[in-house]
């Protein structure tokens, strides 16, 4: 098998990278642009296997030389991007963000980013989750998949070649197994299926099948100009369907990945003489973009992610400049880093490869130390800003008090929590609900209430029963929610010491649950079902002699990070939203609570917007201190503020 350069493959790389770039910068313009990664996978399988087979046929293949070339190809641009991200993150990111970046650099250096990201994404929408947009090295997952595959495939290929096995059959069997597993896992485990190599290797194997079957009689019958043109035309049509018909709502890869994979296979097999390959993909502009596609892929996402971290407004203003800067950096990387190393004398290349490996190990270790030891960047020392939203904001001292502690008791499943204040004795009041019950709990402990408080909560689970809900992935019912509610309601109902129940739950979860119910039961009114179940739950408490107070949800604002000036974004920013916007955003929620209030005349309702939104503006900050620790939950200061105001207005709490 001879080694012949095909400019049309670089042109195909250009198609792939442009799809990825525009999806990341303008997702509404090209909903399936992320399939560009699948195109890269097929091309990679084709080229790498062709190179290995060429060396094997000439009797000069060695594993050392194979991985030597992989280092020479991958490490220069990757190391440059990692160093720049670490340096920029040191000066621009807050502590929690910098720790996340350090973790991703260390996992990227070890080529295990896909496993780390898959684990981080549990309970979210995975690659397409909003939080993923702010991970500057999210895109390294695909590089990890490739390198994990190339840890094993060369061994299989060399063994099959030297044992004179049919390489096509070996690759086909592996591809069928991987594709079948992908079809099984994608709807059931969408996050793992997206990130992990077991459900992706069939895409690389598709390219491999093209490489090892070039002399097959079937393909020989398709060598006419007409057949080649038909192949490449259909291939482009399949790619077009993938780019504009697939979107982030479908389970992926699943069978949807057949569009980019089969389309790429057909274009590769059509060869450089097919009309579209020769005159479109081999055009000098397309070829040049393809030549810089690897560094362009590496540079574009960190620039877009850092822009998103600054603020949504900053991202909107700077996404076009970010793409142009990406092209400039990719060109510089290709001309002055990649090519000089590739074209250098052997001795220089050897030293370059040793230096690159040492550099990758070094940055991986440095990043790991920064993550494990919680190293803080300069922003952590800025007195005018809050560095660590998850701890420092949440634990701001209130009136000189330190954060109060409590013991947490879990049931056998370990999913529900009953918290008791330290040395508090028997509780006679309980906050019951989802995370909203937990985040008000510490504020209740800071009040002068005569009550002894505990709480019972489960994240994203409405406090009512019997009512099944969807799990975080919205793919299957979460039985733990129903069971935990059953346990909580029985506990509260049957404990004579509990005199007061404070019910709190998220308006977002209410609306999401209503929509999930109506999706599962078309034609039903989800709100009425939930309303009846909530009424029954509260009636259960009242019938057992408990007083009940309903705490309405707080305004949903945004990430508190946005309230602090960063390295790039210095514009004045109102750290909050108007009360009118809050009321509009929560319209359905307030309608629900209004109906519930009519059904429960003996229940006290408290709306925290009265204290959180003075002068019709709901701010995240009070006296230069945060009253939220994320976009939806109180800091300790905010919890104490709401709890004390609630105590002043609701007699039952005193």
Shape verdict: elongated
Number of domains: 2
Estimate what percentage of residues fall within beta strands.
5-15%
- Structural class comes to alpha/beta
Average residue-wise pLDDT: 85
Give the termini separation: 85 Å
Low-confidence stretches are: 379-417, 469-477
Number of helices: 26
Briefly say what this structure is.
By secondary structure, this protein is an alpha/beta fold.
Describe the structure.
The protein has 654 residues and is of the alpha/beta class. The protein folds into 2 domains: 7-373, no CATH class; 389-653, SGNH hydrolase (Rossmann fold), CATH 3.40.50. It contains 26 helices and 11 strands. It has helices spanning 7-25, 36-57, 63-92, 95-109, 113-120, 140-162, 167-188, 190-195, 201-212, 217-220, 225-245, 258-270, 275-281, 284-291, 293-310, 312-343, 346-372, 389-393, 435-445, 479-494, 507-520, 526-543, 579-585, 587-599, 609-612, 636-649, and strands at 406-410, 417-421, 429-433, 453-457, 500-504, 547-551, 576-578, 604-606, 617-619, 621-622, 625-626. The strands form 3 sheets. A 7-stranded mixed sheet has the order 1-2-4-3-5-6-8, sandwiched between helices. The protein has a two-stranded antiparallel sheet with strand order 7-9. Helix 5 crosses helix 6, helix 7 (167-188) packs antiparallel against helix 9 and helix 21 packs across helix 22. The longest helix is centred in the middle third of the chain and has 32 residues, at 312-343. It is elongated and about 90 Å long. The N and C termini lie far apart (85 Å).
SSE arrangement:
Layout: H1 7-25, H2 36-57, H3 63-92, H4 95-109, H5 113-120, H6 140-162, H7 167-188, H8 190-195, H9 201-212, H10 217-220, H11 225-245, H12 258-270, H13 275-281, H14 284-291, H15 293-310, H16 312-343, H17 346-372, H18 389-393, E1 406-410, E2 417-421, E3 429-433, H19 435-445, E4 453-457, H20 479-494, E5 500-504, H21 507-520, H22 526-543, E6 547-551, E7 576-578, H23 579-585, H24 587-599, E8 604-606, H25 609-612, E9 617-619, E10 621-622, E11 625-626, H26 636-649
Parallel strand pairs: 3-4, 3-5, 5-6, 6-8
Antiparallel strand pairs: 1-2, 2-4, 7-9, 10-11
